[in-house]
């Protein structure tokens, strides 16, 4: 498998097994967002609030999420966002997942145009025996 950090971010990609170790070697910040308990837009926004270590001032809407992902003061120039248990969430919440992906991909394109990088990495814990 090609090393994911050896190329510019390209949409949603599968996370490599040692994502944190690989990211550290490439001087890429890592943040993890867990989707296990996400039931609706509010719990989705809470998952990002927690995963990105945002303050309670976070607006909890799509525009606010885009803004925090693209804020040069708040994020490193190279960031990997690890989306944990994302495929299961996406299967349960098709419309919410599509809205989220539109925002994430828009942020990824905006950052690329600024010479920055946002990897969107899907990590499935169920398929990884280390997490059972």
From TrEMBL:
Residues 30-122 form the Barstar (barnase inhibitor) domain. It holds the Pfam family Barstar. InterPro entries: Barstar, Barstar-like_sf. Belongs to the barstar family. This is Barstar family protein. It comes from Deinococcus hohokamensis.
């Amino acid at each position: 498998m090609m090393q994911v950090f050896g190329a510019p971010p390209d949409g949603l990609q599968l996370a490599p097994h040692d994502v944190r170790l690989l990211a550290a070697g490439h001087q890429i910040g890592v943040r993890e967002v867990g989707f296990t308990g996400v039931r609706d837009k509010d719990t989705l926004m809470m998952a990002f609030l927690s995963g990105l270590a945002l303050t309670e001032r976070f607006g909890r809407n799509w525009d606010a999420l885009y803004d925090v992902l693209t804020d040069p003061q708040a994020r490193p120039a190279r960031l990997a966002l690890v989306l944990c248990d994302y495929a299961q969430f996406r299967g349960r919440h098709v419309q919410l997942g599509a809205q989220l992906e539109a925002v994430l991909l828009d942020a990824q394109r905006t950052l690329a145009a600024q010479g920055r990088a946002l990897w969107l990495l899907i990590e499935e814990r169920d398929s990884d025996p280390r997490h059972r």
